[in-house]
Amino acid sequence: MDAALRDTLLQMPKAELHMHIEGSLEPELIFALAERNKVKLEYASVEELRTAYAFKDLQSFLDIYYAGASVLLTEQDFYDMTRAYLQRAHADNVRHTELFFDPQTHTERGVAFGTVVNGIDRALQDARKEWGLSGALIMCFLRHLSEEEAFATLEQALPYRDKFVGVGLDSSERGHPPEKFARVFARCKELGLRLVAHAGEEGPPDYIRTALDLLKVERIDHGVRCLEDAELTARLARDRVPLTVCPLSNIKLRVFDKVADHNLLKLLDAGLVVTVNSDDPAYFGGYVNDNFLQMFEALPLGREHAYQMARNSFSASFLDAAEKQKYLDEVDAFFGQ
Ligand code: ADE
Ligand code: ZN
Question: Keywords of this protein's UniProt record, alphabetized (predicted)?
């Protein structure tokens, strides 16, 4: 790639809208926290753990991801994890980030909801003060668990309502269609929460349609399989429903065989509001700038695409109109527009 384009990708102001904070736990931090908390791991060393990061599909990743998260016990652990991610994001010129967190992964181990959310929130506040990096939280329901458990989690979350802007749906997609959570999402909508869901990652395009129709989500996380359905693709483009695409994740989880097979450019050519994100950067081999670099290296993407996706990342965010405009102006100025 030419050096100027590389520099543009690295330096351009950007927002990250699809990042699971538990997926930012690097093996070194997993081991440090395991030691601090006297948690026993199934892996003997950092190297052995990293070697296990060879996934055949989403579920084989999730098994290791939940095992990694088992070292998180105290508020300070959640702070340290989030701080480490925010430092990386700041270095990648991320100006705004919307983080997913999975409370059920922790509350089912006896960790209090407040411990999780307060630790993450304190790190977000520090990043805002120190670097002007804004952040918001999106609470995800684990779709392999029941509707009843999701409702119970929502109850636990209500005292912390001011600490998150929206809810999402993640974990094992196949066999857990969006409609399972239609009533939970309806309640969240009444509460004024913003709504997103993972759909069309491994699951069929129809899960994207039902996430829109039955969950009333505003953004689709992943959504790359929409191209299998021309009518759905046209609808997503017409309604400007953003897709938070995670290229390296899709390669590591075998949604596509190799980087050059990724459909990012096809999604853009279909007129979709595409953003680039890192999903679970500690597990998938790179943070947001690595995702941009590898895609632009492998596909015929240029400066105009970079400009478009930098703009999309802010316009698809849950920032208010004035904040969005401030960041969009910064993007326009960066690209000399
Ligand atoms: N949880 C963390 N990463 C995920 C992904 N890529 N898909 C579904 N659930 C997840
Ligand atoms: Zn995800």
Answer: Hydrolase, Metal-binding, Nucleotide metabolism, Zinc
201 labelled catalytic = yes
Length of the chain: 337
> Are 180 and 112 a contacting pair, CB within 8 Å?
no
How would you class 44 by CB atoms within 10 Å of its CB: exposed for 0-12, middle for 13-18, buried for 19 or more? exposed
All domains of the chain in start order, with CATH: 3-329 (3.20.20.140)
Q: What is 162-218 written as a DSSP string?
A: GG-SEEEEES--TT--GGGGHHHHHHHHHTT-EEEEEESSSS-HHHHHHHHHTS--S
Residue 211: partners with Cβ closer than 8 Å, 6 or more residues away:
169, 178, 197, 199, 217, 220
Other C-beta atoms within 10 Å of 160: how many? 17
Query: What is the distance between the alpha carbons of residues 294 and 84, in angstroms, rounded to a whole number?
Result: 23
Q: What is the mean pLDDT of each run of 10 residues along the chain (337 residues)?
A: 96 98 98 96 94 94 95 98 98 98 97 98 98 98 98 98 98 96 98 98 97 98 98 98 98 97 98 98 97 98 98 98 98 95
With 0-12 CB in 10 A as exposed, 13-18 as middle and 19+ as buried, what is 181? Answer: buried
The CA-based angle 179-183-187, given to 5 degrees, is 140
Exposure on the CB side of residue 222, measured as CA atoms within 13 A: 30
Distance 322 CA to ligand 1 centre (A): 31
| C-alpha of residue 202 to centroid of ligand 1, in Å | 10
The answer, as to whether pTM is greater than 0.90, is yes
